[in-house]
Design brief:
The complex is a heterodimer of chains A (about 110) and B (about 120). With about 110 residues, chain A is mainly beta. Chain A is about 0% helix and about 45% strand. Chain A contains no helices and ten strands. Classes of the chains: A mainly beta (about 110), B mainly beta (about 120). At the A-B interface, strand 4 and strand 9 of A face strand 5 and strand 10 of B.
Chain lengths: ~110, ~120
């Protein structure tokens, strides 16, 4: 199985800050990497897939980069609704696997 | 409006069974591949199962293989998860999620609100 490791697990930031989250795969997954945001008590929502393609309706402050094993999600200017937990997911092969999550908290 | 609504969750004793349902609306359910994803209390997301539009491709996580069975009824625009031999560690919110409708794309672009399964004596 492909393991997905996110870093950091927790990040504290302020509205307007720029934040980058990293996701590393245990083996190459080309660009088959998705990013989700999960607000407290809500279902996840797809932000970026594959790797760097913004999904429809997602604000342009979100961006994704990477291929192979190393990927990043950057939020250029944090908004109040961005304080949530973020997950990466590989879709290169079954079983589909998620990272452990990165919780973005208000400083 | 594209929508997925799960139901069937509840409290069940270890070793018991439960059947989850997910009813779809607002899109061509019969053409879309579907997943179940779960989230234990305070934990991260775990993919559980995948079923293709015609049910000819099915995959399971090792943690549920042999105990859970995914199925669908396209005429009823419904997805199901039959869960047998339930364990404490199956306690979670269970989400159904639609796969992106592009060949080779396996991310999930529409999610239900989730249904809670609690396994406890």
């Amino acid at each position: 199985d492909i393991q997905m490791i996110q870093s950091p697990s927790f990040v504290s930031a302020s509205v307007g800050d720029r934040v980058t989250i990293t996701c590393r795969a245990s083996q190459g997954i080309y660009n088959w990497l998705a990013w989700y945001r999960q607000k407290p008590g809500k279902a996840p929502e797809l932000l970026i897939y594959p790797a760097s393609s913004l999904q429809g309706g997602v604000p342009s402050r979100f961006s994704g980069r990477g291929s192979g094993t190393d990927f990043t999600l950057t939020i250029s200017s944090l908004q109040p609704e961005d304080f949530a937990t973020y997950y990466c997911q590989q879709t290169n092969s079954f079983p589909l696997t998620f990272g452990q999550g990165t919780k973005l908290e208000i400083k | 409006e594209v929508q997925l609504v799960e139901s069937g969750g509840g409290l069940v004793q270890p070793g018991g069974s439960l059947r989850l349902s997910c009813t779809a609306s607002g899109f061509n359910f019969g053409s879309d591949n579907m997943n179940w994803v779960r989230q234990a209390p305070g934990k991260g997301l775990e993919w559980v199962s995948y079923i293709s539009s015609s049910s000819n491709t099915i995959n399971y996580a090792d943690s549920v293989k042999g105990r859970f069975t995914v199925s669908r009824d396209n005429a009823k625009t419904s997805l199901y998860l039959q869960m047998n031999s339930l364990r404490d560690e199956d306690t979670a919110v269970y989400y159904c999620a639609k796969r992106i409708a592009l060949v080779g794309y396996y991310a999930m672009d529409v999610w239900g609100q989730g249904t809670t399964v609690t396994v406890s004596s």
